[in-house]
UniProtKB/TrEMBL annotation:
Protein's UniProt keywords contain Lipid metabolism: no
Molecular functions per Gene Ontology: formyl-CoA transferase activity
Record keywords, A-Z: Transferase
Entries under InterPro entries matching the protein: CoA-transferase_III_domain, CoA-Trfase_fam_III, CoA-Trfase_III_dom3_sf, CoA-Trfase_III_dom_1_sf
Statement: the UniProt record of this protein carries the keyword Ligase: no
Originating species: Variibacter gotjawalensis
First and last residue of the signal peptide: none
Top-level lineage group: Bacteria
Protein name in UniProt: Formyl-coenzyme A transferase
EC code: 2.8.3.16
Length: 407
């Protein structure tokens, strides 16, 4: 197991989480060098261990989801297990949990208990609706946050083009956004504690619904002032034009974002229709937004006659932002991602092979991105003995706890 690298090296993070949002938060911290101790239920572990595609019964996703983390099994419902967790709280700067509100209190591990154990600690709490309010006790996953936060309504074609329900983003983006907010706020609270004369225990309350809502640009003020409800735009951008996906001769789609006046002038010249940049309908972004149908029809008629690779080349030469819509196969072969180490081959001993992993985000000067992935997702309880030994438990004591199902 490689030693920690990164700016958070030396910081201990305790993970009391399952599923996606909380573990994603801690993975970000682990990738930046923190020592993350993940608490799992003895024998079962995190349900994500069984999600996604598997090889020999082991989840490939788990290799990334739990990378750089130590897995310790503890039955937190047993008083002895609770004591083990509290001893780990005493050694941690950040604790992350994403159970339903009130669950850790029922285990005897609420914020007041943690604060008494370690006032120089930050507790991140990620839940569907937050720790307060009329919905606090309702169950929720990322998809609920995406729907209630307004994203799901907007991820569709306009109503006159389809009667199908709004589509979901192809991964749990609501969970990921909440996890990012949790990590960011935790580090802000640690910074505040480090600069305080008397550090104060801080609790971070992250709601999936609010995390998604926070991304909706001007939707809320537009509604509050004008009564305007932003509607689904399909591949378009409601506030800028042209910015859309256009069909190509080989059946692919290429995104073109020429939504400034200089970019639109260059696109018009590339299409050999320079007069478009002077057309009253397209003089500025406001005019182009009002005439999206016309402008998209003109551009689409041009792109349909060109192969996607050639179209991307022409647009790149003209310095117009554009790309083919990438599949994961395209991503894995992309020279830009490869050059920056965003696609990494990571040895995974459980698969006896190298797996492709996304690189750690972001690049931080002075730290090697390639060294950030120190090991892949561990077995259930793989580090239980080591971590409990660091707490001062003897081999006999650990064996007795295992026999009783406490760890």
């Amino acid at each position: 197991m490689a030693g920690a690298t990164g700016p958070l090296s030396g910081m201990t993070v305790l993970e009391l989480c399952h599923f996606i949002a909380g573990p994603y938060c801690t993975r970000l911290l682990a990738d930046m060098g923190a020592t993350v101790i993940k608490i799992e239920t003895p024998g079962e572990g995190d349900p994500i261990r069984t999600w996604g595609e598997k090889v020999d019964g082991r989840s490939l996703w788990w290799s990334v989801h739990a990378r750089n983390k130590k897995s310790v099994t503890v039955n937190v419902k047993d008083p002895r297990g609770r004591d083990i967790v509290l001893n780990l709280v005493k050694r941690s700067r950040i604790v992350v949990e994403n159970y339903r509100p009130g669950q850790i209190e029922r285990w005897g591990l609420g914020p007041d208990v943690m604060a008494a154990a370690n006032p120089r600690c930050v507790l991140v709490r990620i839940s569907g609706y937050g720790q307060t309010g009329p919905n606090r006790d309702a169950p929720a996953f990322g998809v609920i946050g995406e729907a209630m936060g307004g994203m799901r309504y907007l991820t569709n074609h306009p109503a006159d083009m389809t009667d199908l329900p709004s589509v979901r983003v192809g991964f749990s983006i609501g969970d990921s956004i909440a996890g990012m907010y949790g990590a960011m706020a935790a580090l802000a609270a640690v910074h505040e504690q480090d600069n305080a004369e008397v550090p104060t225990f801080r609790t971070i309350d992250v709601a999936l619904t609010e995390s998604v809502l926070s991304l909706l640009e001007g939707c809320l003020p537009e509604f509050g002032k004008l009564g305007m409800v932003r509607e689904p735009q399909g591949s378009r951008l409601a506030t800028a034009s042209p910015s859309n996906a256009y069909p190509t001769k080989d059946g692919a789609w290429v995104l073109i974002a020429a939504n400034s006046n200089p970019l639109f002038a260059r696109l018009s010249a590339l299409m050999k229709q320079p007069e478009l940049a002077k057309d009253p309908r397209f003089l500025g972004n406001h005019e182009r937004v009002q005439n999206m149908d016309a402008i998209d029809r003109i551009i689409g008629d041009w792109t349909r006659a060109i192969e996607s690779a050639e179209l991307v080349r022409l647009l790149a030469e003209a310095q117009i932002p554009a790309t083919k819509i990438f599949t994961i196969e395209d991503i894995a072969a992309d020279k830009q991602f490869l050059a920056r180490g965003m696609i990494q081959k990571v040895p995974d001993p459980y698969f006896k092979d190298e797996l492709l992993h996304p690189g750690a985000m972001p690049i931080i000067s002075g730290f090697d991105r390639a060294a950030a992935v120190r090991w892949t997702g561990p077995d259930v309880g793989e580090h239980t003995g080591d971590v409990l030994g660091e707490l001062g438990l003897s081999a006999d004591e650990i064996a007795a706890l295992k026999k009783d199902g406490v760890v």
